[in-house]
Design brief:
287 residues; mainly alpha; MetI-like fold
Length: 287
């Protein structure tokens, strides 16, 4: 539409993408479930009763409405544990992405704008970190630091920042020689002012899109660490540990691993589809 701002135009393109809007609505549903987990969970997620051990879902013989998705090997309500596990996955994903994006923006701006030895130093650190497989790198850090929520965030953010760093560095190097940056230098603007006020606002869109995509990757990594037993520790509910708990009963109590795995699948798929819609809507090179 003529006279429409770029931001409003991008939002209209995103809104017209039905798949992306549906995915965004599903992500919002998971976020609301995480925020209101104590109130929407039908049972206490840590309340165990061996008399309910491996109780099937409500539609199977022996199931009951009080435990709609059945119970695990300790008689704990599976639906309540999945809902509370949503809090862990989304909190860790958001925390890691926010920390890594902030670190990536700072290092990427310094590397791309200053160049020279600063760029060489940061680029070599990035290359070294990228040489290690992400999951093995996180497993090694967790083995040294020990399990725990804070350590998971540190272990995943320790390498995650290199992704936004490389993106910001490339965008900054492309912008630092354009006319309005040269004009800002000519009138005596300082380097920090140019980086924060002239360059950063023009590269935020791709950074936000990439960070959204990376959140899905971080959620899978957190579930992998919990599955291996070096992530979030019992009795705290985590999707990865729920999948691991159901391995021994996959034939007799398939619902434990299946529904936990479906939760991971739905959230990660929704984030990927929504971020793809964001990329298509906000990247002017694709228009």
């Amino acid at each position: 539409m003529k006279g429409e701002s770029p931001l409003r135009l991008s939002w209209r393109r995103f809104r017209d993408d039905r798949f992306a809007m549906a995915a965004a609505a599903l992500v919002l549903l998971f976020v609301l479930a995480a925020l209101f987990a104590p109130w929407i969970s039908p049972q206490d997620p840590n309340d165990s009763d061996l008399l309910r051990r491996l109780q099937p879902p409500v539609w199977m013989i022996g199931g009951e409405w009080a435990f709609p998705l059945g119970c695990d090997a300790l008689g704990r309500d599976l639906l309540s544990r999945i809902v509370h596990g949503t809090r862990i996955s989304i909190f860790i994903g958001a925390a890691v992405v926010l920390i890594a994006t902030a670190m990536g923006i700072v290092t990427g701006l310094l590397s791309g704008y200053l160049g020279g030895w600063v760029d060489s130093l940061i680029s070599r650190v990035v290359d070294i970190l990228l040489a290690f497989p992400y999951l093995l790198f996180a497993i090694g850090l967790m083995a040294m630091m020990g399990p725990g929520l804070q350590n998971i965030i540190i272990a995943l953010a320790y390498k995650e920042w290199v992704i936004p760093c490389r993106l910001v560095r490339g965008e900054t190097m492309a912008l630092r020689q354009v006319e309005y940056i040269e004009a800002a230098r000519a009138v005596g603007a300082s380097g920090p002012y140019i980086m924060l006020r002239e360059i950063l606002p023009n590269i935020l869109s791709p950074v936000i899109v990439v960070s959204t995509i990376r959140m899905a990757h971080v959620i899978i990594l957190e579930a992998s660490l919990s599955f291996l037993g070096i992530g979030v520790q019992p009795p705290t509910a985590s999707w990865g540990s729920l999948v691991a708990d159901g391995r021994s009963f996959i034939w007799d109590a398939w619902w434990i691993s299946t529904f936990s795995g479906l939760a991971i699948l739905l959230l990660v798929l929704a984030i990927n589809v929504a971020s793809q819609g964001l990329r298509d809507a906000f990247d002017p090179r694709l228009q």
